[in-house]
């Protein structure tokens, strides 16, 4: 389901058994159990075992469980994908995706390992080439459900600064959002690295929401609340959406194509937006 809540998606280091356990109690919409950047080479095999065991054990409730694997061009990628295929996770996140062929290679490994049809692929967009080829990638696999911005790696390759307004990333954000939306995918914003900068995190979350992201990837549980708040509708917004849906239904029943709510013209496209907003609110328990 592409429209499930993904306001807050938290990276959890796969080598840290306590973190994998704690993740079962955190109010994040999604969890990325990480075998890649967060794990040193000597800990890769142990992390894989722990992540697979954690996913198989379950207990994560409604949280979406995603395993970030190492790339197939590394010594660990093939074993990661094979192990993740049947561990019970909702999705596998591929790092540094730059071609549709990379998705197809991962699909072949997953299929050979017996992955169910329901196992989704997520793709990290974190290199200049990945941004420039994202239109091809976004259309590259029927398993693909989500694009994830990797702003740390992207900043390194672009040689750009992490400014408060994130202006250096806006071109990349725009291309990835366009490709994601054109193909019906979810799109997640990159991480906020400064754990002591609550105001900056809140601003980045608001900016991400305004740009059109579905949610934000996070590196610490303390960041969950800010993301959940920013990417969820307010009770007032939900109430207005319900009024809009009701008014449009009334107008349609009376044979009118358009109606006015709160002084604004309402057309079918506004109703579609309102329905999505209400569905998100219901999924995360916001009344309105």
From TrEMBL:
Q: Which SUPFAM superfamilies match?
A: Phosphoenolpyruvate/pyruvate domain
Detail which positions bind Mg(2+).
126, 153
Cofactor(s) of this protein = Mg(2+)
For biological process, the GO terms are: oxaloacetate metabolic process
Highest taxon listed in the record's lineage? Bacteria
- Which InterPro entries does the entry link to? Aldolase/citrate-lyase_domain (IPR005000), Citrate_lyase_beta/mcl1/mcl2 (IPR011206), Pyrv/PenolPyrv_kinase-like_dom (IPR015813), Pyrv_kinase-like_dom_sf (IPR040442)
Q: What is this protein called?
A: Citrate lyase beta chain
